[in-house]
Amino acid sequence: MKKIKAARRKVREPRFCFKTLSDVDVLDDGYKWRKYGQKVVKNTQHPRSYYRCTQDNCRVKKRVERLAEDPRMVITTYEGRHVHTPSQDEDDSSSSQLNNFFW
Predict the structure, then answer these.
(1) Which stretches make up the WRKY domain (predicted)?
(2) I want to staple 13 with a disulfide (CB 3.0 to 4.6 A). Which of 50, 51, 71, 80 is the partner?
(3) What is the number of helices (H) and of strands (E) in the chain?
(4) At residue 79, does pLDDT exceed 80?
């Protein structure tokens, strides 16, 4: 009699993608990020950067890249949900509104 191995599937975290016109690659969203990688992307001269949230026990990842057709356009993809509130380093009201959007 053969033992049947149970197939383990990785649970995929929810993803959120935003397109923004910007000269800077990394936009301030209220959270603190650590860059852990960079990759060359086909058909574009701009690399893709990978970030992780610096908070303990938070597994959220962020991917930042420029659109090949329009290099002014920044595509930011978030994977997962934060298990904590955003950093309170800034007193800017526009950043706090953005923080409420992500939380």
Answers:
(1) 27-86
(2) 80
(3) 1, 5
(4) yes
